[in-house]
Amino acid sequence: MVGFLLLFLPFPFLLYIAAPQIRKMLSSGVCTSTVQLPGKVAVVTGANTGIGKETATELAQRGARVYLACRDVQKAELVAREIQTKTGNQQVFVRKLDLADTKSIRAFVQDFSVEEKQLHILINNAGVMMCPYSKTADGFEMHMGVNHLGHFLLTHLLLEKLKESAPSRVVNVSSLAHYLGRIHFHNLQGERYYNAGLAYCHSKLANILFTQELARRLKGSGVTTYSVHPGTVKSELTRHSSFMTWMWWLFSSFLKTPQQGAQTSLYCALTEGLENLSGKHFSDCQLAWVSAQARNEVIARRLWDVSCDLLGIPLD
Ligand SMILES: NC(=O)c1ccc[n+]([C@@H]2O[C@H](COP(=O)([O-])OP(=O)(O)OC[C@H]3O[C@@H](n4cnc5c(N)ncnc54)[C@H](OP(=O)(O)O)[C@@H]3O)[C@@H](O)[C@H]2O)c1
């Protein structure tokens, strides 16, 4: 017994030593596109931290006019200045966007439409995970409201501009967690039953279904769309769960950095020749499998209609 224990004693130490190599293995997928973006306009939601900040930085590095669409303007202004200094691109702007309030989304689009004639890249990146049960200003369950419905409305309101600017792209940041998600139409707002972890999964499934239906409706328009899983990334996403924060801390050596986590979003936004794959899901800069639920066109169409209904968007 003692011999057996002694055999395994060095294991944690070896694991710790090997952590950088293991992380490298798990972080495969680098956006190798050399596309430059002078004259192009990009919007990144939730760009004041984590994956969104790194995505915005790279788009600015390539010369785009980049809008950081964030709910905390003060925090985002500091990040904008940091990106400007790092990239030498002064065309990095902060605009207020609270995805938990449809009034804020409409105000953002109204101001943006006055400021910019074009929009070439929309990265729907912002997200919340494992919030205690709460509702948005419009009464939507927080995960479904921010992660899905907020981005659904934002994209809808920006669609004409995206079409006018074609070729243009919409990238929706989903998650591997969508595998545990289900769209319970009878309990979309979590009023009958609520589990914070599952609520996140449901909203991430909605991101993929939205991407597929959007791609179907945009066929031939020159606007293409992709959903992505960024990997497991060290960020502030776990802030609402002490358990997940502890797990993230425990396994932090194995997690992707936000910069590594941004690679698949950048790949989908920038890589040439991806147009035929509109509606598909990507991870580690390559096509990825999605759950059976996420491939269900009937659910995708119904979710589209229900989302329009909830947001007061006329059905076409
Ligand atoms: N980290 C991972 O392992 C992982 C894995 C799979 C998928 N993802 C997805 O990746 C995306 C980015 O997450 P992250 O890891 O970078 O997390 P993060 O560091 O927590 O960043 C999330 C961003 O979303 C913003 N946000 C939250 N609620 C918002 C609202 N109501 N309106 C506008 N912005 C809001 C946050 O703003 P504040 O700073 O003001 O709160 C923050 O800028 C999310 O969609 C997430 O689901 C992450």
UniProtKB/TrEMBL annotation:
Reactions this protein catalyses: all-trans-retinol + NADP(+) = all-trans-retinal + NADPH + H(+)
Pathways per UniProt: Cofactor metabolism; retinol metabolism
Gene3D superfamilies found in the cross-reference section: NAD(P)-binding Rossmann-like Domain (3.40.50.720)
Signal sequence annotation: 1-19
Enzyme class: oxidoreductase
Coiled coil regions, renumbered to chain: none
Family of this protein: Belongs to the short-chain dehydrogenases/reductases (SDR) family.
Protein name per Swiss-Prot or TrEMBL: NADP-retinol dehydrogenase
Source organism of this protein record: Orycteropus afer afer
Taxonomic lineage from the root: Eukaryota, Metazoa, Chordata, Craniata, Vertebrata
Gene: RDH11
